[in-house]
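User: Sequence in, structure out. Go.
Assistant: Echoing your sequence, followed by the structure tokens.
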Amino acid sequence: MITPEAIRRDFPALSGKCYLNTAAENIPPVAVGLALEAYWRDKQLGMDGREAHFAVEAEAKVRAAQLLGLQSEEIGFCSCSAEAYNLLATSLRLSAEDEVVVSDIDFPSGFTPWMAGTPHPTVRLWKSRDGALELGELALLLNERTRLVQVSLVSFYNGWRLPWEPFIRLLRERSPGAVVSVDLTQALGRCVLDCEGADIMISSTHKWLLGIHGGCVVGVPKRSAERLTTAAGGWYHIPNAFDADRFERRQTKIGAASYSVGMPSFAPIYALNAAMNYLLNIGVSAISAHADPLVESVFTGLRERDIAPLARRSSSGIVAFKHEESARVHEALRKENVHIMHQAGRLRVALHGYNTANDVSRFFEILDNCLHDK
């Protein structure tokens, strides 16, 4: 993944392409495609294939636990981060008297569940300043009614990374009973984690984890398992689903296991298992050591061109900026097979372990040509 030879071997789809958009969609390695073929072969066995399905799910839990610093029994899978957050809401049973803190640089999946339904809790907005979330602003929002603080370790919007240790210390001082939920979608598989003290960790699988759509990793440490057990209906999270007493009592698996309420999405789990194995064999620290300097070179290059990034600094894989001619810039890049994200005037560059210094050079070459042609 890091050497040119490995990139050519493991990511043939990148041949002739400058792909800087992993924060939206990854390019999976060949190993993921082989895993999907294995799923297909196992599926052709009908019911007999389930033994292999559940074995892969168990392997994937072990690997996800390694990435999150948890135990395999503290890992659950569902179909997407939005589903995970809605399931989390069933465990909290928030009332109108409760308060939830969200930020304005978090992804909609992390804040919309708390605004749904009637009544819903009071949502307090932690507003960013110059692309960053200031802890002093958070302190003003926390109180004894705070039941949940929802954050992203890395913002999808601009790549800003939350300074975790001072954040969690402040929160435990001001609102010790609050649940801390952290979205790792823009970090897991790319950044070395530092989320000690989080009550629940959630990540989509089709970005930096190098998996496909239809998957989500949920990590719930044992200390938080009882209070973060979902209240959703299903069968896969109910130990007595087929017992004679199933109509008299409802027994639910606790914690992370309760987030898999129905038949697992095995194809995404096969893909995820292979992708995590690939990442673990390389090492997330090695990926960061390779890609972080590329991110820094994008920061430097933008500032040299008097373009201000939307975050002061990025300890992640993302750099975002705005430009008055963003649509034209984006179109010029696409014509030259350089792929970045464009949304509402915002351009976002995202660099993973399969990116190189040549990708950064190519990006600036096309950007310069576009700006000079004004």
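User: And one key feature?
Assistant: The radius of gyration is 21 Å.
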